Amino acid sequence: MRHWVPSKFTIYIISHKQQDSNILALQNLMEIATEVTPKLRRCSLFLSDPFDISIILCNLSFETSKHHVNRFRRFMFTQVNKVDDHLTGLEINDRRRLSELTKSLQIISQQADSHLLNANVAIITATGIKDAHHQLQSSLSTLASHFQHATDSISHVIASMEKQKMLFLNYKDRKDSTMSLVFNLVTQQDAVNNIQLATSMKRDSTSMNGIALLTMVFLPGTFTAVSLVLDRT
After folding, report:
1. What does the alpha-carbon distance between residue 21 and residue 27 come to, in Å, rounded to a whole number?
2. With bands split at pLDDT 50, 70 and 90, how would you rate the model's confidence at 43?
3. Who's near 119: CB < 8 A, 6+ residues apart?
4. Which of 10, 36, 89, 126 might form a disulfide with 50, Cβ 3.0–4.6 angstroms?
5. From CA 150, how far away is CA 156, in angstroms rounded?
6. Torsion of CA 101, 68, 129, 44, to 10 degrees
7. What stretch of H or E contains 147?
8. Domain spans in the chain, listed from the N-terminal domain onward
9. What single string gives the DSSP state of each residue in 85-136?
């Protein structure tokens, strides 16, 4: 973005992927904003501030992020509910299923880190726009009310992204506690398996003791009988 104050001329160069939904939405908004018919002439106020397009893109990016946040939230709570089912006994503590839950929780952790990074980048970008906008406002003699709608919009984006960041930090804490529960379930399952193995080994040991006792009883007599037969021959 570049703005020339004397001529009130602003130029933007926007890099984006093909068929970017945010850019398509921006194009639609600009078509409405530049409409010259008397009925829609008031819409041209949307482009009265040099930072309007930057702020509109920030708002569109934030609205797009809501879709990804909702998908993440649904996936996370689906896995958390599965862990709760194991705790309440609705699901059998099968080690294979618990292993799958561990992998899903690891994916949740990675996605949460990615969303947190995106939120931090969005906050830094929006804050930079807000600071640059304030510098422009301070250097011009235009009334503050002329810039107020842009100031309010970018402040709303920053506050919203801060809230979204807080949510993801909370989601990470929830994931960590759920991961601990899964670890405890796996540990309990291993303990049960070890107890069963120890019981089986004890049972086998008892059987071997019985065989050894029988051997001790009959072996001497057998040995004596065989010895007598050999002496006679």
Report:
1. 10
2. very low
3. 65, 161, 164, 165, 168
4. 10
5. 10
6. -170
7. helix 144-232
8. 2-232
9. HHHHTSS---HHHHHHHHHHHHHHHHHHHHHHHHHHHHHHHHHHHHHHHHHH
Lowest mean pLDDT among 19-28, 46-55, 81-90, 127-136: 81-90
> Residue 215 has which token pair?
């051997």
Model confidence at 222: pLDDT above 60: no
In sequence order, what are the residues at sequence separation of 6 or more whose Cβ sits closer than 8 angstroms to the Cβ of residue 175?
Answer: 76, 105, 108, 109, 112
Residue 139 has pLDDT above 90, yes or no: no
Rg of the chain, C-alpha, whole Å: 36
The answer to whether 80 and 179 are in contact (CB under 8 A) is no
Please choose, from the candidates 65, 64, 62, 53, the residue with its C-alpha nearest in 3D space to the C-alpha of residue 133: 53
Q: Which amino acid is at 94?
A: D
Whole-structure pTM value? 0.69
Please give the residue that has the higher pLDDT: either 105 or 125. 125
Neighbouring C-beta atoms of residue 158, cutoff 10 Å: 19
Q: Name the packing angle between helices 144-232 and 95-139 (round to 10°).
A: 160
* Phi-psi domain of 9 (left: phi exceeds 0; alpha: psi -120 through 50; beta: other): beta
What is the bridge-based pairing of β-strands 9-11 and 2-4? Answer: antiparallel
In angstroms, the CA 145 to CA 5 distance is 18
Is 233 strand, coil or helix? Answer: coil
